[in-house]
């Protein structure tokens, strides 16, 4: 009997009932497994996830980030198992690398992003304190807390690993559990990664479940704290978005669907730039056999340059070796399934009604380097050309999800913009231009139609990650046809799984909530200088009020000579008198240096190093004869994890610095960052 792929349901691996959908090997056509989720208990999955969500929410951001990093390392140790399964989806080793190792890289990147950019807290406070009152006793910040629900991720067949992990990383980091539902084609690979992740024991029970098969009545079990994301066809996405329960419970539905992405060769492109354009288009057509949501489907070329570009494209595409990726020299594998093959054939026929096929297509026989080419889902690289793009809506609206692209001439920038807009919104466009050429006006106009713009000139080309690579730091999504969603984009993605709440309070209450001292909150003073205290001994809100210092002309002259900064406002009495200040003023950097002289405790102690300064503002000038004084307040403490047992235990302490003059006016304010030794 054919193997049925199991789902992980409320802590158990279970098979669905009845006959499933048969999945075949993309290269050989051999039957692999069946997929069905019939009879699986979706309500139990949701309840189990919510239980698991409590453990995730109880972890801090840094704990979740460490969990993710360890998980990525664990999965990477098993990568060859995943490559073996990836081959059955028709992927070449390079295609598999993008999916598998690209997925793990996304976990690593998200982990370090969170450890670097977020405090080790359970909730996230956004924005600086927003004062809302005259005396400073009332203000606000925005707070983000994990949603106590479950994130349901419905994924496409083309990236069984990356597609899951790019959504899972921000979900888990936010403190939310996930139920993933891979596409039936390729589900075995996703399931193997989930199995490996669960077997590692690194995730809390309930944090991750998988449905192999349909979602049954899952949507009926969801409520106002849940989130649904979808990647796939616009048809399915639009249908799911209309689910009445999503509407009734305001369940966020993020969609990433068909996208007829463009590559644009800018007018006046020289030979080297044309070569870049050709390289990018061919790469996008052939990587993953063009089964990429970001692949270039429309290649716009100035009419005069079209013949040359067309010849170069045809020459390069002629060198592609289509076949079994396991065979030496094969550069492009088959499509993922016979279903996809049928879909691509159908879409190419639609395109061919408004464009002419220059190479490929299925009307002619084509070479395939495989044992049993008739059984595999092979489709050749297919380039079309449409000479009347304005009158040909199908070329702008048809996503043939395979190695298919249409060449389109344009006569002016205005016409180009109108043609691009006929795509009704895309994930990405590449703009390819000569070194030094200014394309800013074009880029500004393209922005509204795209989630990402890849500006390719000979300088960026040397190090570019390419048109087709969505990166964890950058937004992946797009308007209109592309689904209107937004994934990744650094911490933005984490925030999609959290609720943002405006919190209005006194500075003291905000300090308690944020564990970060807020201006105006109570302070404590101690006879012991804060620089003599170990990390554990310092309290947030601990304040040092320093001695005073009167600034003299000698100070300014000495500082000017020492630093070499003889700017007229400090050193030229006549020019300074005519300046905004009306007289000579101290250098801002002198004020900062003098402030350090006032608050530093000079003897060796637990403060290891001062490693930076943030938010420096000079507010009032300091004139000769003014007297300054510093308030140094312990603002925030973050313990640093020890990388090796030999590392000195330590933490980062952020100090709020306020320098005031004799009239109690703020003259400078900033934060300084120090490393402070911990006792253990
Ligand atoms: P589908 O939209 O059919 O499927 C996408 C995901 O949705 C799959 O996991 C699928 O599961 C699931 N799904 C389908 N119907 C339902 C439903 N009623 N309820 C819940 N989940 C559902 O897309 P395919 O993956 O089959 O690809 C078809 C076409 O979509 C491609 O040829 C391509 O044109 C486009 N596509 C676009 C992508 C993009 O990002 N631009 C990415 C991938 C595909 P199951 O597989 O079990 O049916």
UniProtKB/TrEMBL annotation:
This is Enoyl-CoA hydratase. GO terms for molecular function: oxidoreductase activity, acting on the aldehyde or oxo group of donors, NAD or NADP as acceptor. Keywords: Oxidoreductase. The keyword Flavoprotein does not apply. It comes from the Bacteria. Residues 540-640 form the MaoC-like domain. Residues 21-500 form the Aldehyde dehydrogenase domain. It comes from Zobellella denitrificans.
């Amino acid at each position: 009997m054919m193997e049925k792929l199991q789902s992980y349901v409320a802590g158990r691996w279970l098979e669905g009932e009845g006959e499933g959908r048969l999945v075949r090997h993309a290269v050989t056509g051999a039957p692999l497994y069946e997929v069905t989720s019939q009879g699986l208990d979706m309500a139990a999955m949701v309840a189990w996830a919510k239980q698991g969500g409590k453990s995730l929410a109880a972890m801090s951001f840094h704990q979740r980030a460490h969990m993710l990093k360890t998980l990525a390392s664990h999965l990477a140790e098993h990568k060859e198992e995943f490559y073996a399964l990836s081959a059955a989806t028709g992927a070449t080793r390079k295609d598999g690398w993008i999916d598998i190792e690209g997925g793990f890289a996304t976990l690593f990147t998200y982990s370090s992003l969170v450890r670097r950019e977020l405090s080790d807290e359970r909730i996230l406070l956004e924005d600086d304190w927003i004062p809302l009152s005259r005396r400073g006793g009332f203000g606000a910040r925005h707070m983000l807390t994990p949603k106590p629900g479950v994130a349901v991720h419905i994924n496409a067949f083309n990236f069984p690993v990356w597609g899951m992990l790019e959504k899972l990383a921000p979900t888990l980091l936010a403190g939310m559990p996930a139920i993933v539902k891979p596409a039936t084609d390729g589900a075995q690979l996703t399931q193997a990664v989930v199995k490996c992740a669960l077997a590692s024991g690194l995730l809390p029970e309930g944090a991750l479940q998988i449905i192999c098969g349909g979602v049954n009545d899952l949507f009926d079990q969801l409520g106002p704290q849940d989130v649904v994301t979808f990647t796939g066809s616009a048809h399915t996405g639009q249908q799911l978005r209309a689910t009445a329960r999503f509407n009734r419970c305001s369940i966020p539905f993020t969609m990433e669907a068909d996208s007829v992405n463009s590559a644009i060769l800018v007018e006046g492109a020289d030979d080297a730039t044309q070569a870049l354009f050709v390289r990018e288009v061919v790469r996008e057509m052939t990587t993953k056999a063009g089964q990429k949501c970001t692949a270039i489907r429309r290649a716009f070329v100035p009419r005069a340059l079209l013949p040359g570009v067309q010849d170069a494209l045809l020459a390069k595409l002629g060198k592609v070796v289509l076949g079994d990726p396991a065979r030496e020299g094969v550069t492009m594998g088959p499509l993922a399934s016979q279903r996809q093959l049928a879909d691509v054939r159908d879409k190419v026929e639609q395109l061919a009604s408004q464009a002419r096929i220059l190479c490929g297509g299925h009307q002619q026989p084509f070479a395939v380097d495989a044992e049993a080419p008739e059984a595999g889902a092979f489709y050749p690289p297919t380039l079309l050309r449409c000479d009347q793009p304005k009158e040909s809506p199908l070329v702008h609206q048809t996503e043939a999800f395979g190695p298919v692209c249409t060449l389109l001439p344009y006569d002016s920038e205005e016409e180009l913009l109108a043609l691009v807009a006929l795509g009704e919104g895309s994930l990405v466009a590449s703009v390819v231009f000569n070194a030094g050429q200014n394309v800013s006006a074009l880029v500004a106009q393209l922005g509204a139609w795209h989630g990402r713009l890849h500006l390719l000139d000979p300088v960026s080309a040397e190090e570019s990650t390419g048109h087709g690579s969505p990166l964890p730091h950058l937004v992946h999504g797009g308007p209109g046809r592309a689904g209107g969603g937004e994934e990744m984009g650094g911490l933005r993605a984490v925030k999609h799984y959290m609720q943002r709440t405006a919190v209005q309070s006194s500075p003291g209450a905000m300090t308690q909530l944020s564990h970060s001292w807020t201006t105006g909150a109570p302070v404590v003073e101690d006879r012991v200088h804060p620089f003599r205290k170990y990390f554990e001994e310092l309290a947030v809100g601990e304040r040092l009020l320093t001695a005073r210092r009167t600034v003299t002309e000698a100070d300014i002259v000495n500082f000017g000579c020492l630093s070499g900064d003889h700017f007229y406002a400090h050193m030229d009495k006549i020019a300074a008198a005519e300046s905004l200040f009306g007289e000579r003023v101290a250098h801002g950097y002198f004020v900062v240096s003098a402030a350090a002289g006032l608050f530093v405790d000079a003897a060796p102690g637990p403060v290891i190093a001062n490693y930076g300064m943030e938010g420096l503002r000079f507010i009032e000038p300091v004139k000769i004869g003014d007297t300054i004084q510093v308030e140094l307040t312990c603002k925030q403490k973050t313990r640093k994890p020890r990388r090796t047992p030999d590392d000195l235990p330590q933490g980062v302490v952020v100090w709020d610095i306020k320098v005031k003059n004799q009239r109690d006016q703020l003259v400078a304010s900033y934060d300084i960052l120090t490393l402070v030794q911990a006792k253990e």
